């Protein structure tokens, strides 16, 4: 286990070719062996180029208004109800993930994809025993059905010969071509990478804002100012990409929540050869775990680390000390989308709603991401 910024940089960046990513066997089979997480070298570089093409700011800009509709509908459906925040945020982030993958086609396939994916994910951390009745077996069947739905979508798109600026479009447009199986593995992989991570962070933000009224007020003021600015100019009451770049306080709240919660506490690598680091030998085949949470909670790097204090991000953190999206060759290509969807939801949440937390909320559970106890039950009320 490594917990210094220098050692994490060594494993994830400088000598990344000596450390391959590894996952539990069941997860590898369920996501698909050809998914980006498990790959290295040329195939990884090719996938990364295709994934990044769909998630760079230039590409996701066009989705702002669709993401906004999804956020508004989600919040409206929760009005006045006692909800489990994490569950509801998962629905929101699932719908946004599908939008980024299938563009406006998303609505057509949402229910079928949801039904299969929800069965599949139950088996992610199961024992990989493939006999009828096991969780693993049910998940593998759901995976097969999911791949069939994807094959149908791909063949419909091939017939129409239209150009699409979403992730599936990027995968299908590659000249060297990905096979249908490779596309399926990576689409399932992106849903996996995009959904629970972003939903956990949103859940933590809602908790942190609920516990820090002055910070909530500052975020609300910032978001209301954006709304009022539009009213004054007679502009449409919808968010634009430019608006999301005018939210410094909200951005710092997101950064500080990513630090405090460190939902991906660490990542797994495996040494592919004997490696020496500062006089220590890491034998070939040994697992190496860069501990993001320890770095983010080090008092030398972030003084008073347990305190939720977004103002600490008024100063840019030193290199390799803040890695909520990882570092190096496998770092998160979806980070811009994650931040965008969080901001859009926070805009509507803080300007139109208040919420109160229900029950005791001091515990943490891991599923496997760190989460407030019981997924943070809250009651959501529309402001009058
Ligand atoms: C706040 C939410 C998110 C967090 C905290 C997060 C965090 C991370 C981290 C730490 C890694 C690196 C893992 C490693 O090095 O082993 C990663 C990889 C990845 N993430 Fe994210 N992620 C988030 C949202 C997303 C979204 C929204 C997408 C897609 C739209 C996404 C797609 C991916 C993919 C495809 C990889 C693998 C990249 C590769 O292996 O080259 N993530 N993420």
From TrEMBL:
Write the protein's name.
(+)-abscisic acid 8'-hydroxylase
Which is an annotated GO molecular function term of this record?
A: (+)-abscisic acid 8'-hydroxylase activity
Instruction: Provide a GO CC annotation, any one.
Output: membrane
The biological pathway it contributes to is: Plant hormone degradation; abscisic acid degradation
Catalyses which reaction(s):
2-cis-(+)-abscisate + reduced [NADPH--hemoprotein reductase] + O2 = (+)-8'-hydroxyabscisate + oxidized [NADPH--hemoprotein reductase] + H2O + H(+)
Q: Which cofactor does it need?
A: heme
Q: Name one Pfam family in it.
A: p450
Q: Please report which protein family the annotation says this sequence is part of.
A: Belongs to the cytochrome P450 family.
Q: What is its EC number?
A: 1.14.14.137
One record GO biological process: abscisic acid metabolic process
Locate the residues binding heme. Answer: 332
Note the superkingdom of the native organism. Answer: Eukaryota
Organism of derivation: Gossypium harknessii
Please classify the protein's predominant subcellular localization into one broad category: membrane
Classify the protein's membrane topology as the record does: Single-pass membrane protein
Where is it located? Answer: Membrane
**Which UniProt keyword terms apply here?**
Heme, Iron, Membrane, Metal-binding, Monooxygenase, Oxidoreductase, Transmembrane, Transmembrane helix
InterPro entries (UniProt xref): Cyt_P450, Cyt_P450_CS, Cyt_P450_E_grp-I, Cyt_P450_sf
């Amino acid at each position: 286990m490594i917990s210094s910024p220098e050692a994490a940089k060594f494993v994830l960046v400088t000598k990344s070719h000596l450390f391959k990513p590894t996952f539990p066997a069941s997860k590898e089979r369920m996501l698909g062996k050809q998914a980006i997480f498990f790959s290295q070298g040329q195939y990884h570089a090719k996938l990364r180029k295709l994934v990044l093409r769909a998630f760079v700011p230039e590409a996701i800009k066009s989705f702002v208004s669709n993401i906004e509709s999804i956020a508004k509908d989600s919040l409206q459906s929760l009005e006045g109800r006692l909800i489990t925040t994490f569950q509801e945020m998962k629905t929101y982030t699932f719908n946004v993930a599908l939008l980024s993958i299938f563009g406006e086609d998303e609505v057509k396939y949402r229910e079928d994809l949801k039904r299969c994916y929800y069965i599949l994910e139950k088996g992610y951390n199961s024992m990989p025993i493939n006999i009828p009745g096991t969780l693993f077996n049910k998940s593998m069947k759901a995976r097969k059905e999911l791949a069939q739905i994807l094959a149908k979508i791909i063949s419909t798109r091939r017939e129409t010969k239209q150009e699409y600026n979403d992730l599936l479009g990027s995968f299908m447009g590659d000249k060297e071509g990905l096979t249908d199986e490779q596309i399926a593995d990576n689409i399932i992989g992106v849903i996996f990478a995009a959904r629970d991570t972003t939903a956990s962070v949103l859940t933590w933000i809602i908790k942190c804002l609920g516990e820090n009224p002055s910070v909530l007020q500052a975020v609300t003021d910032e978001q209301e100012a954006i709304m009022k600015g539009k009213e004054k100019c007679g502009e449409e009451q919808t968010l634009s990409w430019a608006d999301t770049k005018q939210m410094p306080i909200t951005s710092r709240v997101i950064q500080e929540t990513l630090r405090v919660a460190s939902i991906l506490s660490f990542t797994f690598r495996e040494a592919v050869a004997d490696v020496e680091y500062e006089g220590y030998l890491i034998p070939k085949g040994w697992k190496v775990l860069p501990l993001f949470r320890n770095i983010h909670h080090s008092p030398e790097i972030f003084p008073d680390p347990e305190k939720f204090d977004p103002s600490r991000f008024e100063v840019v953190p030193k290199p390799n000390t803040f890695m909520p999206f990882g570092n190096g060759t496998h770092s998160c290509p979806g980070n811009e989308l994650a931040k965008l969807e969080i901001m859009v939801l926070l805009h509507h949440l803080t300007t139109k709603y208040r919420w109160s937390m229900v029950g005791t909320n001091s515990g943490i559970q891991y599923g496997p991401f760190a989460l407030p106890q019981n997924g943070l039950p809250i009651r959501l009320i529309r402001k009058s």
